[in-house]
Amino acid sequence: MSELLKDKVCIVTGAAQGIGKSIALKMIEDGAIVYGCDRLEGSMSALELEFERFHALYFDVTHAQAAKESMMRVKKEQGHIDVLVNNAGVVFNKKIGMIVREETELMFRVNVIAVIELVQLVSRLMARNGGGSIVNIASVTAVLGSSGQSAYSATKGAIISFTKSAAKELAPIGVRVNAVAPGIVKTERFAELYEDSKEKIDMRIAKIALGRLGSPDDIANACSFLASDRSSYISGQILGVDGCASI
User: Fold this and answer.
1) Residue 67 falls inside a structural domain
2) 15 Cβ contact list (under 8 Å, min separation 6)
3) Which residues fall within 8 angstroms of residue 105, CB to CB, at 6 or more apart?
4) Catalytic hit among 35, 58, 152, 194
5) Is 152 a catalytic residue?
6) H/E element holding 85?
7) pLDDT tens across 48-66, in order?
8) Could you count the other beta carbons within 10 Å of the beta carbon of residue 90?
9) What is the CATH number of the domain that holds 100?
10) What's the Enzyme Commission number for this chain (predicted)?
11) Closest among 120, 111, 143, 166 to 241, alpha carbons compared
12) CB-CB contact of 140 with 181 (8 Å)
């Protein structure tokens, strides 16, 4: 086991699958005590059984009171919170002419408003213990734009702006705020979207300088570093983990 995050108390939202699950597992590997969050009851039972340092929290990030109760539970059980990774997200890929208001509003509630409210809450708890690290998950789409993802890109653009401003505001209390902007990551969801179109996948890969899709572990490694004391002089940064696609 690595000691990069030795005994740090880390909260990861959207931890039941995909990138969030990889982040949680990486942080456990690096010595952290991890609280994984998901809205589907029982979705992380296997992780709790397998890893002594993993604890499940079941709540909807858009429900402010439930989120507050969950964060206070962590504080009560562990005495402090060192790291928050805002990974939970919703995406609806629609051309501009097909955008549905209800879907856009849901994306903003999950991808932006819930993040702001969690940062507001957790940063206060971190301040009582000398600081901490917050990592928000943005997207390369917010940097480059993406046809068919205008509304989703807008939510991730908001995260980038929020990250930079929050970093400046929270620096005096010792709380660092950064964001990781993944490129195309080979998750279960990606496989579902493109399973019948190898040509589309090949076209996407052709635009990536390193010549491959990202993996959830690529994102997890970046998050673990930004959560650690090795990045103690890094705040307000947007780290592109995209295979050199955004340059």
Assistant:
1) yes
2) 21, 23, 24, 34, 36, 37, 38, 44, 47, 87
3) none
4) 152
5) yes
6) strand 83-86
7) 999 999 999 999 999 999 9
8) 17
9) 3.40.50.720
10) 1.1.1.47
11) 143
12) yes
pLDDT tens digit sequence for 98-116: 999 999 999 999 999 999 9
Per DSSP, 185 falls in state: B
In this structure, is residue 83 part of a structural domain? yes
In a domain, 246, yes or no: no
| The model's pTM | 0.95
Query: 66 in a domain, yes or no?
Result: yes
Angle at CA of residue 221, ends 38 and 217, nearest 5°: 65
Tokens of 127: 């301040």
The total of other beta-carbon atoms located within 10 Å of residue 140's CB is 23
> CA 33: distance to chain centroid?
17
Name the domain count of the chain. 1
Q: Which residue has the tokens 């408003």?
A: 113
Structure tokens at 111: 């991808």
